[in-house]
Structure formats: structure tokens, C-alpha cells
Amino acid sequence: MLTVASDIEVLARFGRALADPIRCRVLLALREAPAYPADLADALGISRTRLSNHLACLRDCGLVVTVPDGRRTRYDLADERLGHALDDLRTAVVAVETDRTCGEVDEKGCC
């Protein structure tokens, strides 16, 4: 039985997916068009095994779906609005201090 995720859960899943550069690249590639795993692995220059792990994560997060296509399986974004969200995030202006990196944690526990 499918349930509707809370807003916080949805954002946390999206954040988890975007926390890895390879998953970001996969999502951006799927934003352009659905793809087969072998083609994605070749386009991204990573092993099929490594890609499989990232695709599993993205499926678990609910961001991509599999579409049977004969004997093959194609991947696509779970919702076309995800592509728009990726575009909005990609083009958003992020205010950062030039002398800090996101991984640094300050005395308040923030990066």
C-alpha cells in the first residue's frame, strides 16, 4: 500500500539523493531523457555495479522509477516535476561565504 510522504520526509529523501555527486549526475541525465543503466554508466564513466547501487538509492528515495521495455529496464524520473525542481535548484542563487566550504561546521553546528 502506497502512502503519501510528509513534506519533511520528501525533502529529506531529495536531500539524501542530492548529497552524492553521482546521484546528482544521474538525476540530471534522467532530467534530459529516460535511459538504460548500461547507457547511463557509459555516459557517466562509472561501472555498472556502482551505478546500480546509486539507482537503487534513487528508487528507494522515490525519485526514479523503472519501466520494463522488453528484456531491458529503462529508468525515468518518478515525476516530471522533479526535472523542474532540479532546474530550479540548479539555477538558484546560493549565498556562500567565499572563505568557507559547506563541509565546515561552526560553533553552532551549522555549515
What does this structure look like?
There is one protein chain. With 111 residues, the protein is mostly helical. It has a single domain (7-91), classed as Winged helix-like DNA-binding domain superfamily/Winged helix DNA-binding domain (Arc Repressor Mutant, subunit A, Orthogonal Bundle). It contains five helices and two strands; from the N terminus they run ααααββα. The protein has helices at 7-18, 21-32, 37-44, 48-60, 80-91, and strands at residues 64-69, 72-77. The protein has a two-stranded antiparallel sheet. Helix 3 (37-44) packs across helix 4. It starts with 6 loop residues before the first helix and ends in a 20-residue tail after the last helix. The mean pLDDT is 86. Residues 3-100 form the HTH arsR-type domain. This is DNA-binding transcriptional ArsR family regulator. Keywords: DNA-binding.
Helices, strands, pairings?
Blueprint: H1 7-18, H2 21-32, H3 37-44, H4 48-60, E1 64-69, E2 72-77, H5 80-91
Antiparallel strand pairs: 1-2
Which fold does the CATH topology refer to?
A: Arc Repressor Mutant, subunit A
Beta strand %: 5-15%
Query: Mean pLDDT, nearest integer?
Result: 86
In total, the number of strands is: 2
Quick one: overall form? globular
Order of helices and strands: HHHHEEH
Largest sheet: 2 strands, antiparallel
Strand arrangement in the largest pleated sheet: 1-2
CATH class: Mainly Alpha
CATH superfamily: Winged helix-like DNA-binding domain superfamily/Winged helix DNA-binding domain
Model regions low in confidence, pLDDT < 50 over at least 5 residues: none
Helix content estimate: 40-55%
First-last Cα distance: 38 Å
SS field, number of helical segments: 5
> How many independent structural domains?
1
**Radius of gyration from CA coordinates:** 16 Å
What would you say the CATH architecture is? Orthogonal Bundle
Structural class: mainly alpha
GO molecular function: DNA binding
Protein name: DNA-binding transcriptional ArsR family regulator
Organism: Streptomyces griseoviridis
Domain HTH arsR-type: 3-100
